[in-house]
Design goal:
A alpha+beta (184); B alpha+beta (138); C alpha+beta (165); B: 138 residues; alpha+beta; five-stranded antiparallel beta sheet; 5 strands; C: 165 residues; Muramoyl-pentapeptide Carboxypeptidase, domain 2; 5 helices; transport (chain C); TRAPP_component (chain C); golgi apparatus (chain C)
Chain lengths: 184, 138, 165
């Protein structure tokens, strides 16, 4: 079986055993978090930084659960890990499977793309918040998760569906392979 | 037929206005006044039913004012005024108009950046209202 | 007009919500100078959802206006609870003595997997109820309590106490 189909099967079988929620409570809670931050903090850069930090915390805990529930135990191989991120991680936790494209020659950078998700249903950015990065949380999650797996990455949103693009694109760039924080 | 459509917030301020086939100037001002004055009739109509569509709540000369209330007590008001060419649309058409507007409005409310009572300035909302108006009221 | 308005997406893992909720709690905790303030912010966050939940649920269920508090609370503890949390609340009871109501829930999703110390994370849900009541014109105060299910056991239940105005 191809690696992709195997991961998809693992995702489905793991998901079937987990407690689930309807997406609405998740969508609305995230909306409440973002709007609270916008009101609390002085500028949009601070909001984006806070979302990234929250995402990072979530990513660390999420990958712990993901590995425990799936039995997966990947080496810090960027290609394989990003397949797990999209086909298993996103599938279970956000209900979507982003695509991976534009791998560079030595497999250290890739673009992850998705359209809609439970994170951004019904969201319309006001013009006063042009620089708000609604999906910054996702960047943090990817960063935090990959760090636990021994890979230090940089995540940049290069296209944002809430700002008119066809898809939301996140450029993931490997910066350093470290000692994995656990397993291995 | 010419129509003035107004969305009135829970605290009685107009947060959205749209005119179909009418002229926005003088009769426009009068129509806004008439719609606002009809709010009392909306309250009365509301007290006697648990339906959201309140039908025709008031009349002024040849103008009829229809109302619909949302779960969160926002009022949709439609003032219908016959012109020389056509007669008034059926109540069913107006009800369908309100139901579709409710859907547009709901999407707007679900936006986390929506602020209750604030004027609706979204272009996409206005475009959707225009489409719904054309569909049921022309 | 739009699929997710009418029907909603497929379910996601509950821990997605739990992780997100825990981060929200952490954030409020880091900025609150007292436990009262923390509780207040958590409740206020829930209140933001009230109008949205009310309008969405009414639309989806094609429900009519609830003109009594009891019928409205029944709508909340049944229909709304099912959409938000996947199942109806454990119960809705009236307290005749002061005409207040209790919505009962053993384990709110806000309290699963979360160690929150003194604060009851279900205050977020209390906020949602308050927001809904206010949006529909009821304006009753609501409090979060944890009560013993009965004298003999140590089993507890969360109580959202809807007080008369």
């Amino acid at each position: 079986m191809s690696r992709e189909r195997n991961l998809a099967k693992i995702a489905e079988s793991t998901f079937s055993k987990l407690d689930k929620v309807h997406s609405e409570i998740f969508t609305m809670t995230y909306g409440a978090i973002v709007t609270t931050l916008v009101e609390d903090l002085d500028n949009v850069d601070e909001v984006n930084a806070q979302l990234d930090k929250m995402g990072h915390n979530i990513g660390e805990r999420l990958v712990d659960e993901l590995l425990a529930k799936t039995g997966l135990n990947p080496q810090p191989d960027m290609r394989y890990v990003m397949e797990i991120v999209t086909r298993v991680g996103f599938r279970i936790y956000l209900g979507i499977t982003p695509t991976l494209s534009n791998w560079n020659a030595d497999s250290t950078t890739v673009t992850l793309s998705f359209r809609d998700s439970a994170l951004s249903d019904w969201v319309e950015l006001p013009h006063t918040l042009d620089d708000l990065s609604y999906f910054q949380l996702v960047c943090g999650v990817i960063r935090g998760a990959l760090e636990m797996l021994g890979m230090k990455v940089k995540c940049t949103i290069t296209a944002d569906k809430l700002k008119g693009a066809q898809t939301t694109d996140i450029l993931v760039e490997l910066q350093e392979v470290m000692q994995a924080k656990f397993y291995n | 037929m010419s129509y003035s459509f107004v969305i009135v917030s829970k605290n009685d301020s107009p947060i959205f206005e749209y005119v179909l086939n009418g002229d926005a100037s003088e009769s426009g001002h009068l129509n806004q006044f008439i719609i606002h004055a009809a709010l009392d009739c909306v309250d009365e109509a509301q007290a006697s039913t648990t339906q959201w569509f309140l039908r025709c709540v008031d009349r002024f000369n040849d103008k009829s004012i229809f109302a619909y209330i949302t779960a969160g007590l926002t009022r949709f008001m439609l003032l219908a005024e016959p012109t020389s060419s056509t007669s008034i649309k059926s109540e069913d058409a107006i009800r369908s108009f309100f139901l579709d507007i409710n859907e547009c409005y709901l999407r707007h409310v679900m936006n986390p950046f929506y602020v209750e009572g604030q004027a609706i300035s979204s272009d996409s909302f206005r475009e959707k209202v225009a489409n719904v108006a054309r569909k049921y009221l022309l | 007009m739009e699929k997710t308005l009418k029907k909603g997406r497929p379910d996601i893992a509950m821990s997605s919500f739990s992780f997100l909720f825990a981060e929200m709690l952490n954030y409020f905790h880091s900025r609150a100078s007292s436990s009262d303030e923390l509780e207040g912010r958590l409740q206020a966050a829930g209140e933001r959802l009230g109008l949205k939940v009310l309008e969405l649920m009414t639309y989806r269920e094609k429900a009519n206006r609830k003109d009594t508090l009891e019928s409205f609370l029944s709508f909340i503890s049944n229909n709304v609870w099912r959409m938000l949390f996947g199942r109806p609340a454990d119960g809705l009871q009236r307290i005749p003595a002061d005409n207040s109501y209790m919505i009962l829930e053993s384990v709110p999703i806000t309290n699963r997997y979360i160690e929150a110390g003194q604060l009851n994370p279900a205050t977020f849900i209390t906020g949602i109820i308050i927001g809904m009541l206010r949006a529909a014109g009821f304006n009753n105060p609501v409090e979060t309590h944890v009560w013993k299910k009965d004298e003999s056991t140590n089993e507890t239940t969360n109580v959202y106490l809807v007080k008369s105005k």
